[in-house]
Sequence to fold (307 residues):
Amino acid sequence: MKPDGRTPVVVVTGFLGSGKTTLVNELLREERDSLVIVNEFGDVPVDHALVENSTEAAVALPNGCLCCHVRGDLEEALMGAAMRRRRGEIAGFDRVIVETSGLADPGPVAQTLYSDHALTRDFKLGPIVTVVDAADPEARKASMGIARSQIAAADVVVLSKADRAKDFAPVEAEIRALNPAVECIPARFGKVEAKRLLDAKPGTDQVFCAAAHDSAIRSFSMRFEQPVLKALLQHFLATLVELRGKDLLRVKGVVPVEEGLVLVQGVRHVFDRLRPVAKGEAALVFITNGVEQREVEALWHAMKGLS
Fold:
């Protein structure tokens, strides 16, 4: 199988004051060959000036939500960087790190990479890294919906300010109620092993389990013992998006089809095209806002029965 040579786009997200820029600077000390894009909230960009050690100047995207015109800015920044790299106008970079604002849902970054076919020639979604303040859980309550979305979307969680926290158990319980299988990595004094984050896989080869909690966030998986028709899988995903797209916080996994294994990745209404992969546990993982496992499985079995 031909290796995927596209440049990964690593998303660093987390609520206001969680320590995202500190983490990005720490990553750049170990992995300098990175292009950094900083999305800020407000008309005057400031945070990008705090990013150190980048081989190129950090790109600032103002107004903080990474949606609408800002998504267009992200596409323009990535495509411009790819063209300048091909022309030799800038140094090569091995990855892109997008630091979202503290009030941003990371989902639109994934949507941009899934939906823009010009971008997918050069870029692919890498791990979503969510920074959670382990010392001040009260801060997230200012906008709990955004904080929950950031945690639910994560492939790996960094527990920042771990040197100030006496007990990780409550914050880990909060995280696992939303995203039960995610890896949590404590960062003391901002220190964390860069490769452990940047090389994290998008959650497709782990064993996932459902969590019991009182919030509307649901996490569950569908397993596949036998290969399925690729057209049926595509029709199922399209129908699910049509019915409940806005509530699909993240869908990811590996599904066996007659041609081999394919990678499924989606956020809300936007899914990447099915791409072949060499290996992975045959399971499709759903993180949803109120969509129950029985609803998804009922739709699958109904459509499978009609195929």
Observations:
- The longest helix spans residues 69-86.
- The radius of gyration is 19 Å.
- The chain has two domains: 7-198, 217-306.
